[in-house]
Amino acid sequence: METNIFTKFTAEFLGTLILVLMGCGSAVIAGANGMTGVGLLGISFAFGLAVVSMAYAVGHISGCHLNPAITIGMVVAGRMKGSEAAIYIIAQILGAIAGAGILLLIASGRDGYNITVNGLGQNGYGALSPGHYNLQSGFIAEAIFTFIFLFVIFGATSTKNIYGGFAGISIGLSLVLINIVGIPVTGVSVNPARSIGPALLVGGEAISQLWLFIVAPVLGSIVSAVVWRYVLDKK
């Protein structure tokens, strides 16, 4: 029996909420102190582990996209209808906002926390880049890293893949790899919803730079889907 769209909406909402809460939370709550915090590797693994966990929690319900770029890529690759994709994307954005809101409620309970200074793990380039990388570097990184992320997803979830039962692990580990390399550049988005949630609550420059973390990941996902569908997965 096919899962109804409300159930899929709920799975995508909750999955994205948890991804943002735990991934961004690792940076805001556990990664801020260079001496005792989890650091770059810890944050990278937090995002990856969140994806692995949700893949096995809701993957059988909605496919565990948790990311508008993935959903758009699935449409371009011919694996999903546009009407269903729109509902997924709404759920993902709302889930990301809710996750960022919960993170703010927790983080603001620490003495001295200031959302303007400490943020919510939002993405950025230039002055807002962790390593002060410029717009060009940020755009290229987000587009290429999303291409790679979708490339892994298409391959791992292919019906031709005899290791399909391990798809969640390979996808999660690919996100760990992307974060290890990309955090200094933009804080790593490869997911418009993950960027929208924190940016809306932080405001200011985080919102003015948000366009990059929507356009670049979507572009990367579309190119990846086209390459997979018409070059690598041709019958």
Indicate the proportion of strand residues.
Answer: under 5%
Coarse structural class: mainly alpha
The secondary-structure element order is: HHHHHHHHHH
Tell me the distance between the termini.
28 Å
| Gyration radius, rounded | 17 Å
For the biggest sheet, the summary is: none
Shape, principal axes of CA atoms = globular
Number of helices: 10
Helix content: over 70%
Low-pLDDT ranges: none
The residue-averaged pLDDT reads: 94
Number of strands: 0
How would you concisely characterize the structure shown here?
The protein is mainly alpha-helical and 235 residues long.
Architecture overview:
The structure is a single chain. With 235 residues, this protein is mainly α. It contains 10 helices and no strands. The longest helix has 26 residues, at 5-30. The protein is globular, with a radius of gyration of 17 Å.
Question: Tags for this entry?
Answer:
235 residues, mainly alpha, 10 helices, globular
SSE blueprint:
Blueprint: H1 5-30, H2 39-62, H3 68-76, H4 82-107, H5 115-118, H6 135-156, H7 167-186, H8 192-202, H9 205-208, H10 212-232
